[in-house]
Here is the input.
Amino acid sequence: MTDAAPQPVFLKDYTPFGFLVDQVELNFHLQPTATRVRAKIAFRPNPAARDRRFFLHGEDLTLISAAIDGSPVTPEITPEGLSCPVPEAPFVWEAEVEIAPAENTALEGLYMSNGMYCTQCEAEGFRKITFYPDRPDVMAPFRVRVDCDLPVLLSNGNPVAQGAGWAEWNDPWPKPSYLFALVAGELVATSDRFTTSEGREVALNVWVRPADQGKADYALDSLIRSMKWDEEVYGRAYDLDVFNIVAVDDFNMGAMENKGLNVFNSRYVLASPETATDRDYENIERIIAHEYFHNWTGDRITCRDWFQLSLKEGLTVFRDSQFSADMRSAAVKRIEDVMTLRARQFREDNGPLAHPVRPESYTEINNFYTATVYEKGAEVIGMLRRLVGPEGYARALDLYFARHDGQACTIEDWLQVFEEATGRDLTQFKRWYSQAGTPRVKVTEDFRDGTYTLHLEQKTPPTPGQDEKQPQVIPLAVGLLSSNGDEVLPTTVIELTEARQDAVFEGLAAKPVPSLLRGFSAPVILERDSAPEERAFLLAHDTDPFNKWEAGRSLAREVLIAMVTEEAAPAPAWLDALAAVARDEALDPAFRALALRLPGEDELAEALAERGTVPDPLAIHAARERAKTAVARHLDPLWAGLYAQMDCPGPYSPGAADAGRRALRLAALGYMARLDGGARAQAHFAAADNMTDEIGALSVLLETGGADEALDRFARRWGHDRLVMDKWFGLQATLAAPERAVAVTRALTEHPEFTWKNPNRFRAVIGGFSANAAGFHDASGAGYDLVADWLIRLDAVNPQTAARMSTAFETWARYDAGRREKAQAALERIAAREGLSRDMGEMVDRLLA
Ligand code: PHE
Ligand code: ZN
Here is the structure.
């Protein structure tokens, strides 16, 4: 027997809850299979609500007892929660439930990870802990007591008191249940103090398992820099006496902003030079900042309902990007952000899972923690800032914090403060929140009598449920260069609002070279025919660092596409341009490293599909390999010099400068390996004294062959370290040659250390393989079947992570009939499973629609 199909929830159906909560008191007696949770909740009728039905969410809870104002009641219980008659005046609800954290493999609610208790409540996990109006617009202060014989007992807010086997916490700031957290375990802290701009003394602790002691310094340092930055840039100070961060090994996402008690996937906390790469350090800094910034954009001001998710996520991603840009290189950060945006969000926007930044309906909210809500949401805020200017933005944000502190808000509230603070009408701009799909901006031009005209046309393709799109407000940052490379027009923002519009520039001596969409000023796809020579010119001369990179990237894309479709040889103009960038010592090494990276196979597949060509994953892979070898040969005279010059003597530092040098050095190493059979890479691997170099050299060996011995050595050296071994698993699946990828991945899944219930390990292998485009899209369909089998298996244990990984299939429709048929069959096989989760059910439905 199957359950009735789960019903979608609609934005338009929002109604407030019938009651307000004045206070929550929770009491936990922690036991692995029989935890008791007692809740005492003070309710009062909500004058703003019309519907007074008393319904509390609750899932997988065993109700032991319930009472209202001290008198026992017998509520009516369904799988989703309970209802009960209640007085028409304020009343106190009390309930005791039993739950089994040790049996909770979904990692949502209260669960156990490596002997410690921890919680994950966003979005709807609190209902697995006790009966409650588990919705973000119900905010209340929480007081929590934990009884447990583990030494460290944590919850939100400030510590009240503690003794042997118990601790009490009080969080004075009203919060929604999704921000509740509890942790109990044998943990050690790395600690410091911070004095806020308001004079508050805050104790800072990063808690890890004793085996990981010593690996929390960078996280703590990042936290301090984040706190300072938010005071300086946004005027936001921290508001409790303690700030705790806990590293957890089994975690579905990156991290979680629970009030005063952030819980992190351990991969975004733990770092030492020997075990973490430059990229890991950068991610730790960024995610620590992200969760900390949520204290104001998320916790103090939260979301009215989950449709407004981007209100906190888009804004907080935007804030953490600003922070990273300030801590590191703004230009490099922007390029990296756009690369991820294109790889993840454009891909999403262009496929069956496309949805607006503010979706209008969902079946399972966990499926909407997406690149669109996060990254496109952040881009929308970047555009808003560009349109109103930094001062207007600052005024709007001040108004937002002043007016909405302590509230659960909507996108309308957010836009309203911008309208009031800047006088700007944002009616049309709001379409960025409601229309899915990536706008295409087509550009043609003409030049006559000193007047240069750009003809601009915008069009957004249809997406599921949205056939017709209206024109959006697109800030197009433009600069003009003269043919000798001088800037004749510095960056100017054109506001494109119509379907067709001209931008006119007068008084020019000669036809300029346009530099369009500088800084990637809007998340759009630019369509413009331009000669390779012009792109090479911009790569050499553009003063906008993003567009300089972009010129090289688009040139590379063109070259690679010609190599795929016409079996052409790589254009010499491109190779010369790359050489010029590689040897330009005025450029940041990190920038040069980025410029030497070729567009990925999926990006090329997408570009081909965009032009109406069915992509052949094997041909793309082969062309990319040929291109790399051609670059290696053409720039051969440079590599040894670069490699020597980019050495980083002295102790390891994770800062942007050294990281950039290591990146460029490893890029050189990678190209050299195509000429020297990997000899230098073997030596680099053997001599590495930090993980960036060690894994960098290993990747080179995996790509060019001859990695077997290094892989064994690596496993012997790091077998005890889960996070390091995730890299070992992941790289092999991602970098396996197309014809071996399925077999290699299958072998990895049979490895005794493939602890697949751990999300990081599962993602490393199955996610790593899905990122191996030519392997995953193997013409036999074996790649699809392998992934489908594992999604089915994981879905029974952890629906949230399984469903998220089904996005491996989101591009299936762009391939040939043979592959399509096999991908579809694999998806249908998942869909047909009995007992499929709501999460996975919704995903495969959308993928197959
Ligand atoms: N809110 C978290 C963040 O963006 C993400 C998250 C969502 C974590 C759901 C866990 C569960 O920082
Ligand atoms: Zn977030």
